Amino acid sequence: IVTEMGASANAYTTDDYTCYYMVVASENLERVMEIESDRFQNLSYDETAFKTEAGAVYGEYRKGRVNPFSVLFEELLNTAFDKHTYKHTTIGFEEDIKNMPNMYDYSLSFFKRYYRPENAVLILAGDFDVEQARRLIAKYYGSWQPGYVPPKITPEPEQTGERVKEVTYHGRTLPILAIAYKNDAFDPTNRLFVAADVLAELAFGQNSDLYKQLVIREQKVQFVQAENSWNRDPSLFAIYTMVKKEEDIPYVQQQIDKTVARFRSQPPDPDVLEKIKKHSYYGFLMSLDTPGNVAANLARIVALTGGIEAVDQYYRTLRSITPEEVQQAAEKYLQKKHRTVIILKGEKQ
Fold this sequence. Notes:
Elements: E1 8-13, E2 18-23, H1 29-42, H2 47-64, H3 68-80, H4 94-98, H5 104-114, H6 130-141, E3 163-169, E4 176-182, H7 191-204, H8 209-217, E5 221-228, E6 236-243, H9 249-265, H10 270-286, H11 291-305, H12 309-319, H13 323-333, E7 339-346
Parallel strand pairs: 3-7
Antiparallel strand pairs: 1-2, 4-6, 4-7, 5-6
Helix pairs in contact: 1-6, 7-13, 9-13
């Protein structure tokens, strides 16, 4: 059906939400509403089909282990978290994936509990008649019965000491260093959380002093970058770098620590901060160049907050962030006792 419409369809799952998406001509909107609403309300599959797909998931996991960054990230989460479900990657722990073919009944229960209207958001972006879309939503989704059962997530206890682990990658790779600090849950009104987004770019972006030093001048690393994760619950502010020579790992970590110390002790240059904020804002606007990209850029925020209002709120907060707040964010989040350090090295040949 999708192919006949000339549509593009796929899905993905993250740590906080699953997204199904379809790019289709507006004249086929009703047909899309019909088939998607049927899938979400009346999905049916037998145990044989489930076992086949479960086996494919394990194959996907094993394929991911070929990538050293996947191995690194899995160990990072498993080490950084003790109780919260963020302890495992989206695909899960290997032992659980291997057992998935035996979980047919649980999968039916999962669908029944999670695929409910109060746990779903429908995003439409593009050239369509709004009133007609409202009528179609009422027609095809109006009979969807509520019944969502929220999961009981154990809050992560406060981390009180640095955690360090060295991981061996079963293959050849340059060493990878990850340094991750605990952050807050996504909140566009939390000024220090938003300031941490700016901090990541100021301290570790491609125009940062550290990048120019380690990547360009000294050529010690392939790259250095940081990300302040947006999640429903507190997650990680993580710094990643790939080091060219194993013996340079202590030096590279030392330079990262010096950068952290500098931003904790003094505010950044106001002019540089303004450039970073403008780059973030206009970069977001430029990414909204197609209906598909509009929906894709809204998906996480909508999943975390339930609406698009958080977009405007986030950028209002971002535009007013001060140098002093960036320093305060560094002081709050970049604490050694709240960090996890993972060093990945390839097998000795």
